Amino acid sequence: MLFKWLAAARGLRDSVFDPFRFFSERRFDRQMINEYEQLVDQLIEVVGDHNYADAVELSRLPLQVRGYGHVKQRSAKAIEARHADLMTRVHAPGVKARAVG
Fold first, then answer.
1. Is residue 100, in this structure, part of any structural domain at all?
2. Could you list the residue range(s) of the whole structural domain that residue 59 is in?
3. CA 14 distance to own-chain centroid
């Protein structure tokens, strides 16, 4: 019965009627989505032949964030250093990129 109610309430997710919208995990998810959208907007502005491979890798980093709760936050923390490195490389003018693969 509970699972049927939860399945039916899926449409409320991320709305003002979402009973879980203030939970830290849900706020973290929304924050990650917003950061990813901002990242894509930045990449559109700076991507070129010299940094394409790094831009692709950077855009794929969030796929490594998996799990729920503290597991998800730990995996997000684990990619921060690589994210910072790739951001530096993507924004560096004329730096030769590695091959995508």
1. no
2. 21-91
3. 17
Amino acid at 83: H
Determine the Cα–Cα distance for residues 36 and 59; give it in Å rounded to an integer.
8
Residue 94: CB partners within 8 Å, gap ≥ 6?
50
Confidence of residue 97 (pLDDT cuts 50, 70, 90): very low
In a domain, 85, yes or no: yes
Residue 7 included in any domain: no
Sign of CA dihedral 56, 34, 21, 16: negative
**Backbone phi and psi for residue 83, each to the nearest 5 degrees, phi listed first:** -60, -45
Average pLDDT over residues 4-21: 80
What is the per-residue pLDDT across 32-56, written as a single tens digit (0 to 9) for each? 999 999 999 999 999 999 999 999 9
Tally of structural domains, the chain: 1
* Residues 89/54, Cβ–Cβ less than 8 Å: yes
CB 58 within 8 A of CB 83: yes
